[in-house]
Design brief:
The chain is α+β, with helices and mostly antiparallel strands and about 170 residues long. The protein has a domain of about 90 residues. About 30% of the residues lie in helices and about 25% in strands. The strands form three sheets. Strands 5-6-7-8-9-10 form a six-stranded antiparallel beta sheet, with helices on both faces.
């Protein structure tokens, strides 16, 4: 199987969600995910057809992005409440495809999965957004890292692999 990331397929999720549930995905997320996490300030742009832009149109403050990542680190539990089902967390963090054989990156259900290092097969996970925005979760260290960047002119930013290597070296055995 060959992996090709497809942002159009990601955008299609908003349409499928609305057709299947009769609900707008932003309204559903605001009530069932964002409010329980205490996230009130965000911006979700819309497509010309009025759908929430699920391929790259959701903007969070860095601390709110960290909350989403931490929720998954905690197996879907926030403040003692199950917000996301543990089975969905597990399934979404299970490798579904090899995204890059050379970098040993894999892809789950909307999460990128990164090996801790060349010699360590454990997987960190995270999201990668436009311009270098990313969250990385390193479960072995109970650690969430959020990067805000704006590298849109072709400048190469810090890769997830390099970030994991540097941070793991800094916290290992502490």
């Amino acid at each position: 199987m060959r992996f090709n990331y497809n942002s159009g397929a990601t955008e299609l999720l908003a349409h499928i969600f609305e057709k299947a549930t009769g609900q707008d995905i932003e309204e559903y997320a605001a009530k069932n995910l964002l409010a329980p996490l205490g996230i009130g300030q965000y911006f979700w742009k819309r497509t010309p057809l009025g759908l929430a832009d699920t391929e790259g149109g959701l903007y969070f403050e860095r601390h709110d992005l960290a909350k989403i990542a931490y929720l998954y680190l905690q197996n879907g539990v926030w403040d003692g409440k199950q917000i996301v089902s543990p089975s969905w967390v597990k399934d979404s963090l299970t490798p579904f495809a090899t995204a890059s054989a050379a970098r040993r990156e894999k892809y789950g259900f909307k999460w990128w999965l990164f090996p801790y290092s060349k010699d360590d097969p454990r997987l960190a996970f995270g999201g990668q957004g436009f311009g270098g925005q990313k969250s990385i979760v390193i479960p072995a260290y109970d650690l969430v890292i959020v990067f805000t960047a704006w590298n849109i002119l072709g400048e190469k930013g810090l890769s997830a692999a390099e970030a994991i290597t540097r941070v793991s070296a800094a916290v290992k055995d502490r």
